[in-house]
Amino acid sequence: MTSLNGIHHLPQHVAIIMDGNNRFAKKMHLAQGAGHKEGKNTLDPVVERCRELGVQALTVFAFSSENWNRPQPEVDLLMHLLEQTVHEQIPRMIKFEIALRFIGERSRLPLHLQELLNTAEQQTAHFKQMTLTIAISYGGMWDIADSAKRIAQDVLDHKITVDQINPALFGQYIHLGDLPPVDLLIRTGGDYRISNFLLWQSAYAELYFTKTLWPEFLVEELNQAFKVFAQRERRFGKTSEQIQQEKTEK
Q1: Where are the domains of the chain?
Q2: Which of 29, 49, 62, 151 has its CA 20 to 30 A from that of 229?
Q3: Is 157 noted as a catalytic residue in this protein?
Q4: Could you tell me which residues come within 8 angstroms of residue 165 by beta carbon, excluding any fewer than 6 positions away?
Q5: H or E stretch including 116?
Q6: d(CA 209, CA 221)
């Protein structure tokens, strides 16, 4: 793994809430919707840096379940930009050998966009360098409820019993359950909340909040987030003394 100024303790799974596009447009006196177009271009260098450093998974929040409540012209623009992004990402994923995945309520998306997502996943599924997941029409509460529904169906079908249900089993049903849990969750734009994003997967994630608006988020700040992460003591319920003892034993 490529070091980051001598830092080798890097997250396996990074999640990003890409917030601040509209505020960037207002700040720069751009036309409505122009912030989303600018924000689309921010993703590529972030993906490349994560792959370079050996991050296993990067999951980004592109469109939430709640975003359907935005003005229809903005929703239409976002759907168009998402389609454009997927078309652009497929050859990039092939070039960098990255698996491209999507999570969310696909049934709410236009049919042609649903088909495009399926095609992108099929064409890149065999790549192992990294997994890039784009959350579209996604909400953490929907994710948990959908997993619970599938567990309930498997109980009814006698595939599992109620007594077998525990956090480990539930984690097998949750979306992205085959990937490492989120280690580092980054939110741009200055708000201090996770906005219904990857609630289960981020249970023990380190949080990094920045006032930087997403279109202005550069690789240099991603590096800074990684440095902050490397300085955090991740105890997972244990004491600092236990963690230090485990490091000594290793």
Answers
A1: 13-249
A2: 62
A3: no
A4: 151, 155
A5: helix 111-124
A6: 11
Average pLDDT value over all residues in the chain: 92
Measuring CA to CA, how many Å separate 160 from each of 53, 156, 166, 208, 242?
A: 40, 8, 12, 38, 36
CATH class of 13-249: alpha beta
Rounded to whole angstroms, the Cα distance separating 14 from 5 reads 19
Contact 210, 191 (CB under 8 A): no
Check 5, 19, 41, 146 and give the catalytic one: 19
| Tokens found for residue 6 | 């001598």
- Give dist(CA 76, CA 32) in Å, integer: 13
Active site residue 19: yes
DSSP per position, 122-140: HHHTT--SEEEEEEEEE-H
**Distance, CA of 90 to CA of 80 (rounded, Å):** 16
Other Cβ atoms closer than 10 A to 248: 7
CB 168: neighbour CB atoms within 10 A? 8
Q: Is 64 labelled a binding residue?
A: yes
- Residue 67 gets which letter from DSSP? G
36 is in an annotated binding site: yes
pLDDT tens digits for 75-107? 999 999 999 999 999 999 999 999 999 999 999
pLDDT at 234: 72
Backbone angles phi, psi at 81, to 5 degrees: -70, -35
User: Is 65 labelled a binding residue?
Assistant: yes
Q: Comparing 233 with 207, which gets the higher pLDDT?
A: 207
Q: Where are the beta strands (DSSP E) in the chain?
A: 13-17, 57-64, 98-103, 130-138, 184-187, 206-209
